[in-house]
C-alpha cells in the first residue's frame, strides 16, 4: 500500500512539473528593451575577457535578460553578444557585429533599434532603422524605414523584412500671404505622421499596428481634411508581404 502511494505521489509530482513546464513554455512572447547597463567592475572584466570588441575605448553598453535568464548586450558600436548563466558567471554563447551606414551630410543614417524581437521562445531578431531627413521651403520631413534580421546561431543575420514603413513626420508650409496668416489661426503648416507598434501574437506571427494622423491648416489649399486612422496587420513571418497593406499616403518615402 505504501509503495502504491509512493508511486502515485511521483506521478502527481511529475504531472505538476509537466504543467509548470508547459505554462513556462507557453508564456506570451514579449518584445524586450535594451536599457542602460549597470555592471560591477568584476562583472565587466569577466564579460570583456570573452568579448573584447565590447570593451574598446568609449564603448557604451545596453543590456537585457531574456526569460531563460540569458544576458544580451548591445554596444554603441553595434556589437551584440549573448551570454548564458553558469555557476562561474556568464559565459559567451555567440556574438554578432552589425554593419550600419551613415552619410557625411547626415541625410541618411542607420541605427539598431534598441529592442529584441522574439520570433519564437528561443529565436530573436533586431530591427535596423534607415533614417532620412529632407528640408524644403518652410517645412521638412523625417522618415524611418525598418528592416528586420534574425540573429542566427552561426553568428550571421538573416533579413526577413525589408524596408517597411516605421515612422515619419512631415510639415508642409501653408501660409504664403498676409491673408493666409490671418486665416491660419496660428497653424501655418499641414502636418502628418505615421507611427508603428509591433505585438508578437504567437511564434512566427506579429501584429503591426500602424497609426496615421493628418492635421490640415485652415489656410491650406490642399483640399484635405484632418483625420486620424489606424490599421492592424497580422504578419506571418514565414511568408512576409513585400510591403504592408496600408494606404499610399501613409507610406511617405520622401520627395523624388
From TrEMBL:
<feature type="signal peptide">
    <location>
        <begin position="1"/>
        <end position="26"/>
    </location>
</feature>
<protein>
    <submittedName>
        <fullName>Uncharacterized protein</fullName>
    </submittedName>
</protein>
<keyword id="KW-0732">Signal</keyword>
